[in-house]
Design a protein that fits this description.
By secondary structure, the protein is mainly alpha-helical. The protein contains ten helices and no strands. The N and C termini lie far apart (88 Å).
């Protein structure tokens, strides 16, 4: 019955069907002034006020992420921004130029959602990604990261001097084996 009442009020209030329900304000938190207009209602009272049309099951629009469209947008935009922020810096562009580009990309991705986010939410995501990427991605940090990745990648490889001793001696493979035959 809880799901039917939830569906009914979502339908009746024309609420966002793609909303995942994970972000809410706590009405009893000291930071909010809550005005209680009516007393509490029992579930059966809420159910009685709905019509069968209100309670009817409808396909819920899915978001790209189980957490919500905000997270989906953030993940998509951050990947683009992290890949391009150093190019903007190399070209001498400003943070505002980068922010404008990230905002445009965010708006474009947002249009792909069945129910797009409000522009204010898109701008907030773009601003957050811009702030982090511009601050954290520098040429020096990128160089250190690439060096670390290379050392991890090649850590278990055997050096050429062990597998190809002729290279360590600066001679050809054929010469190495000719010398080796003479010594044997």
């Amino acid at each position: 019955m809880i799901q039917a009442v939830d569906r009914g009020y979502r339908f009746r209030l024309r609420a966002d069907n793609a909303y995942s329900g994970t972000l809410t304000k706590n009405p009893v938190h000291h930071g909010w002034q809550t005005i209680w207009m009516a007393g509490t209602h029992r579930l059966d009272e809420l159910n009685d006020s709905l019509t069968p049309e209100d309670r009817k099951w409808r396909r819920r629009e899915s978001s790209e992420s189980p957490i919500g469209r905000n997270v989906s947008l953030f993940d998509a935009v951050r990947k683009l921004a992290y890949g391009d922020v150093l190019n903007f810096k190399k070209k001498g562009k400003t943070r505002d130029d980068f922010c404008q580009w990230v905002t445009t990309a965010s708006a474009s991705i947002n249009q792909g959602f069945t129910t797009p986010l409000f522009n204010s939410e898109v701008r907030a995501v773009a601003k957050s990604v811009t702030k982090f990427a511009w601050r954290e991605f520098t040429a020096a940090k990128f160089s250190r990261l690439q060096s670390l990745r290379a050392s991890i990648r090649w850590k278990d490889t055997v050096p050429d001097s062990k597998t190809m001793p002729w290279r360590a001696q600066g001679i050809s493979r054929a010469t190495y084996y000719r010398h080796k035959q003479r010594v044997s």
